[in-house]
Amino acid sequence: MYRYVDLGLMGTRNHNLLEKLKRNTKAQHIRKNKKKLGRSIEERPKEVENRQEFGHWEADLVVGQKSGNDQVLLTLVERKSREYWMLPIKNCHADFVMEAFHVLQKTYSEHFNQVFKTITIDNSSGFSRLSELEELTETLVFYTHPYTSCEKGTNERHNGIIRRFIPKGKRISDFDVDYIADIEIWCNSLPRKILNYRTPDEVFEDELDLIYRQTAS
User: Which helix or strand (DSSP H or E) is residue 120 part of?
Assistant: First the structure.
């Protein structure tokens, strides 16, 4: 949980929560984006789809109250491991989103490009600057088609889970960091059938260990 420390947030503690992940997908009509912010998801490498390669992420912004004085959650999920992060940021302005990614860049340092090979996001204004990462790193940023949340469905499903603990319309600022971290810990400690009953944390840590060993050798 070093990223919480780096973001200036409090520490975390384990919390025993029980919930079952459910999948809810439905086909949507794809609209062309009139404003091109960066690379289209149509350009995304095919290996991202099969989840066999580590380092491909989906990101989103979870809003509590639609006001400029409430925090939002920057949520990220790694597609292979299903590792899920919830990062409280000041608001949904693009500058604060970029600031959070700069923190992650510093946290993973020379390993950032291997941990974050691609990031898939929507066209909301909060992500309007994220393609700038490509100027600073080797990470590729892909934008989904407008109104097509199913194109980052892994993140959407996890966001649906946390809405059971942080309901829509409730101020995110009213939930302390320990509570938010507890939800994240629970999500990543839950064995998944899709992972052969391993947890996202276990798969994620194994992938990180592999990256660090390869770098050291």
Answer: strand 118-121
